[in-house]
Amino acid sequence: MTAKIGIITVSDRASAGVYEDISGKAIIDVLDSYLSSPWESDYRVIPDEQDLIEKTIIDMVDNQKCSLVVTTGGTGPALRDVTPEATEAVCDRMMPGFGELMRQVSLQYVPTAILSRQTAGLRGSSLIINLPGKPKSIKECLDAVFPAVPYCIDLMNGPFLEVNEDIIKAFRPKS
Fold it and tell me: How far apart are CA 36 and CA 138, in angstroms?
């Protein structure tokens, strides 16, 4: 079964074409390196509008059947940074450990990591993860949390995600 993964870049300027989106493409590159099982992306670039972020996540999960949705951008303290609020509004349950771990890892590199509000949650049988907006930070955060992602998807009866063990090791309990 081919996994479907939603990737959302939340950026007023990238969505307006002021500059090229490199963050969403960085997520695709990282996932390409991690995953050895087949997957396809539903990739979108949208402005920092809470209502639109919510609608996009809902569409990816409910209609496009993405088992994983990864966002980038909109997680800081600026007034237009509303990605965590949009994520919380559409999730059935929150997974605060993801944000806690991402901030802990990011603090090893920059003291401003405490300003980040990344989070994660579950909607139906999908996992939604908010990442920061910088490609270097995206990789650092995904390196930290992705080992738990395949098992989380397993627990929600999603597709079996196989990883390239030379790049990243996924944790699954021995049965």
Answer: 20
- DSSP of the chain: --EEEEEEEE-HHHHTTSS---HHHHHHHHHHHHB-S-EEEEEEEE-S-HHHHHHHHHIIIIIS--SEEEEES--SSSTT--HHHHHHHH-SEE-HHHHHHHHHHHHTT-GGGGG----EEEETTEEEEEE-SSHHHHHHHHHHHGGGHHHHHHHTT-----B-TTT--------
pLDDT confidence of residue 24: 98
Arithmetic mean of pLDDT, 138-154:
98
The two structure tokens encoding residue 37: 């099982």
Whole-number pLDDT of residue 46: 98
> Closest Cα to residue 34, out of 138, 154, 166, 157?
166
pTM of the predicted protein model: 0.96
**pLDDT for 1 beyond 90:** no
Grade residue 175 by pLDDT with cuts at 50, 70 and 90: confident
